[in-house]
Amino acid sequence: MHRLKDNITSEYVSAANRLNGKHARRKIVAYVEAYDDIFFWRTVLSDFEDDKVCFEVMLPSRQHLTKGKKSALMSLLKQKVGDSMIACVDADYDYLLQGVTAVSKEINENPFVFHTYVYAIENYQCYAPGLHDVSVAVTLNDHAIFNFEEYLKQYSEAIFPLFVWNIWFYRQNHYGKFTISDFNRVIEPGNFNLSDPYRCISNVRHKVGRKVMQLQRENPKAKESWLKLKDELRTLGVTPQTTYLFIQGHHLFDNVVVPVLKKVCDVLIRERQREINRNAVHSTQRHNELASYSHSTEDIVPMLRRTTGYRRSEPFKRLQDDVRKFLEAHQ
């Protein structure tokens, strides 16, 4: 039985659906890349479950523990994906490459493959309008002491010109000359200081400017194609204000957003602790209240991974539209 499930195919699921009878819900298996993706894709697909259809989100192999888009999902598409089986993957750069590579072509054109539009689920988790809610979930303190939206807007504006160059090299199939890793090193914000939060963005802007000038000198004939690409990227949703959604997700999560959240949450926790100390009538009450509050606070990373503030974002709405159109076409 386990071996049969591990080698599940779209035909097998379709046959099982037929055996369940005409009044049973049709099950669609949704393959994802890794364990961390299961919760996100469940939030996507749950909205479309009703008395006619349901989804089961799973990894592509329960037997071999194979994970990852290219090593697992993409090797299964032609054999297993159909109207009872879909693949749900991170867009990475493949969405923005618009069919330049074989993987990009599959991601953008296969009707049974759904992608995030933003680089990865981590980018959704770092969606700026939802970060205040994350800080509240962590600290149980609703005092808004930092403008996450303005910070990520300015960060995006600082890195946008270099991001276009990075995509330009990938579109030209010369990505080895300026890789994602090279790009990430330049846009590294460095040490974040809540008392002077925009100093690190100024530093990033300076580093980006130097790198852009270098790339312009080394590629003097690229101006026209670079400008054309910049305009095209805007039509795909990449604007100077939203670039953070399209850079490598782990870099954004680990090096940009978590350090900021940590500093903000530390201040909010200390603020709440001072409030308890100030209002406590006696030492026993103070001790009990501080212990109770400490036990109620949460760690940042788990809260960030479980946020759903991204549901308000335009890329997420596009993803929902894709699922809706798929279900309408395969009723």
Please specify the SSE layout and strand pairing.
Elements: H1 2-6, H2 10-19, E1 26-31, H3 35-45, E2 53-58, H4 69-80, E3 85-89, H5 94-97, H6 102-109, E4 113-115, H7 121-125, H8 131-139, H9 148-171, H10 180-186, H11 199-218, H12 223-235, H13 249-279, H14 283-296, H15 300-306, H16 314-329
Parallel strand pairs: 1-2, 1-3, 3-4
Characterize the structure shown.
The longest helix is centred in the C-terminal third of the chain and has 31 residues, at 249-279. By secondary structure, the chain is α/β, with parallel strands linked by helices. The protein contains 16 helices and four strands. It is flat, with a radius of gyration of 23 Å. Helix 8 (131-139) crosses helix 13, helix 9 (148-171) packs parallel to helix 11 (199-218) and helix 9 (148-171) crosses helix 12.
What share of the residues does DSSP label as strand, in percent?
A: 5-15%
User: Could you estimate the helical fraction of the residues in percent?
Assistant: 55-70%
Please report the distance between the alpha carbons of the first and last residues.
29 Å
Mean pLDDT: 89
Q: Can you count the helices?
A: 16
Residue windows where pLDDT falls under 50 for at least 5 positions: 1-7, 12-16
Strand order of the largest sheet: 2-1-3-4
Chain oligomer state: single chain
- The run of helices and strands is HHEHEHEHHEHHHHHHHHHH
Number of strands: 4
Radius of gyration: 23 Å
| Derived structural class | alpha/beta
For the biggest sheet, the summary is: 4 strands, parallel
